[in-house]
Amino acid sequence: MKTLIVSIERNGKMVQVGTISGNDVSDSRFQYSEEYLRSPGAVGLSISLPLQDQPYSASRTANFFEGLLPEGFTRRSVAQWMHVDEGDYLSILHGLGRECLGAISVTEVGEEIDASYERITEQQVRELAAEGATKSVELVTKSHLSLTGASGKVGLYYAADEDAWYLPWGTAPSTHIVKQSHVRLDAIVTNEQLSLMTARRCGITIPNSFIINTGSGEEYEVLFATERFDRFFPAGPRSVSGMPCPLRLHQEDFAQALGIPSSGKYEREPDHYMKAMFDLLRQYSADPITDQMKLWDIIVFDYLIGNTDAHIKNFSLLYGPDMKRVRLAPAYDIVSTTVYEQSTRDMSFRIGGAHTIDDITADSFRVAAREVGLGERMAMHRFTDMCDRFKPALHQAATELSGTGYPKAAEMEQRILCSGGISRI
Question: Which residue in 226, 207, 220, 199 sits closest to 416, CA to CA?
Fold first, then answer.
C-alpha cells in the first residue's frame, strides 16, 4: 500500500492535512487527519472535499488530485521520464507534487525535502524557447513541479532586479509560469499577450505578463511569462538561497471545486456548466455580487475575442492566506483560438443554450443571464459596454505591442476582428 502526505501552506507555514492511501489509483482514497480536523480554523482542501472524518471515495479523490497534474503530451512525457504508466496519477503526483498550483504539497511519509533556487543561464533560457516541450518536461520533472494544462510550460522564479531566472528545487515556490511558443500555434505568444492587454483595457483583472525575447523575436526565440497570482511576497523577511521567498495562496479551478474530472472540463452534453459556475460563486465567494459580475465580464470577453478554450479549468477560486476567504481568481489563459483554422468553433460550455460561437448572439447572453440568475438589464448593459470597449481596447493593445518590437500584433488584431465573436456583433 502506498501512502502520500498531503500538506497545505497557511499563513506561510506548511500544515499536514491528511493522506492519500491505497494500492493503486482504483482504491486510493484521501482522508483528513484527526489532528487537522481538531485544529482551530481547519478548512477543507476543496469545496468538493469538505471536512469529514471518513475517507473520500477513489473517484472523488482522483477528481481533485488528478486535477493538479499536467495533461496531454506533457503528462505522457513526464510519465516516460519517471518510468510509470501515465494513468498512474499517484506516482506522477508524488513525482511532481512538491510545488503545485495553489498551496498544496504532496510527499511520501518521512520524506525530508530542502528548498533552494538554481540560477538558469541565458543559454538555458534560449534552449527552453528553442527546444520546445521536451525541455520544459525535463525542467518540470527535475524540479518536481506540477502545473495543469496541456501546453509546454514550467514554473520559474524571476528576480526582476537582476533580470534573471531561477529553477525552484524541492519546496521552493516559483513566481512565474513560463510557456513556450512554436510548439503550439503560430504567433501564440503575441496572441496571448495581446489578448491579456486587451482584457485589462476592458476592465478585466489579469495577472502581469510579458514576453521573454531571447533573440530577434522569432517564434523559436520567445517565451511567455505570467506572474503567479497564487504567490505573493510578505512584508516580513523570508528567504531561500539568500533570495526573497514568496508565500503560497491556495487556489482550485472550477472543475475541482465542482467535483468534475479534468476529462470533463469541456461541456459536451447540456450540463449547465455556466449556471454551476455562478452558483458556486453565489454560495462560496466572500463577495458574490462582485465576483459574479467579474465572471460574466470574462465570459463575454472570451466570446468577443474568440477564446473557445475557456473551459472550467481555466477559471479558478483563490483563497486568502488563512484560507477563510474565497474570491474569483484573476482571468488567465486567454487566447484567441478562432484565429487558427484548425481550432474548434465550439465554445467550452454553452451560452444560453448555444454551443458554437457562430450561433451565439446577444440574445444568447440574454437567455444566459436569466439561466444563471443575473438581472437581465444589468447583465446586458455590461454586455453592451464590453462590446463598445472591445475594438478600441484591442487596437490600443496592438499598437502598443507592435511598438515594443512585435509587428505581428497588428496582423493578429485583424485576425481577431474577422474570426472572434466581435465579428458577429
Answer: 199
Least confident stretch, 58-62, 133-137, 176-180: 133-137
Please report, as a single letter, which amino acid is at residue 130. A
Beta carbons within 8 Å of 400's beta carbon, 6+ residues apart = 197
Q: Which residues contact 123 (CB under 8 A, 6 or more apart)?
A: none
Say if residues 247 and 321 touch (Cβ distance below 8 Å).
Answer: yes
pLDDT exceeds 60 at position 66? yes
Q: How far is the C-alpha of 37 from the C-alpha of 19, rounded, in Å?
A: 13
The CATH number corresponding to 250-424 among 3.20.20.140, 1.10.1070.20, 3.30.2020.10, 1.20.1250.20 equals 1.10.1070.20
**pTM of structure:** 0.94
Q: Report d(CA 416, CA 275) in Å as an integer.
A: 27
Separation between Cα atoms, residue 285 and residue 283, nearest integer Å: 6
Find all residues with CB under 8 Å of 159, minimum gap 6, and list them.
165, 166, 243
Identity of the residue numbered 375: G
Beta bridge partners of 159: 164
Give residue 144's pLDDT.
Answer: 45
Report, in angstroms and rounded to the nearest whole number, the Rg of the chain calculated over CA atoms: 21
Q: What is the pLDDT at residue 150?
A: 46
Q: What is the pLDDT of residues 382-420, one digit of tens each?
A: 999 999 999 999 999 999 999 999 999 999 999 999 999
The three three-digit cell numbers of residue 18, written as one number:
491528511
* Contact between residue 335 and residue 306 where contact means Cβ atoms under 8 Å apart: no
d(CA 275, CA 383): 17
DSSP SS3 for 69 = coil
The angle subtended at Cα 262 by Cα 260 and Cα 264, nearest 5°, is 60
Cell of 12: 506561510
Per-position b or e across 104-115, b if 16+ CB within 10 A of its CB = bbbbeeeeeeee
The three three-digit cell numbers of residue 236, written as one number: 516580513
Domain boundaries, the chain: 2-108, 115-227, 250-424
359's CB contacts (< 8 A; 6+ apart) are none
Which of 32, 103, 93, 102 shows the shortest CA–CA distance to 62?
Answer: 93
Inter-CA distances, 410 with 191, 343, 405, 415, 416, Å: 10, 21, 11, 9, 10
| Whole-number Å distance between alpha carbons of 130 and 110 | 39
Burial of residue 61 (CB within 10 Å: 0-12, 13-18, 19+) is: buried
Task: Identify the DSSP state of 219.
Answer: G
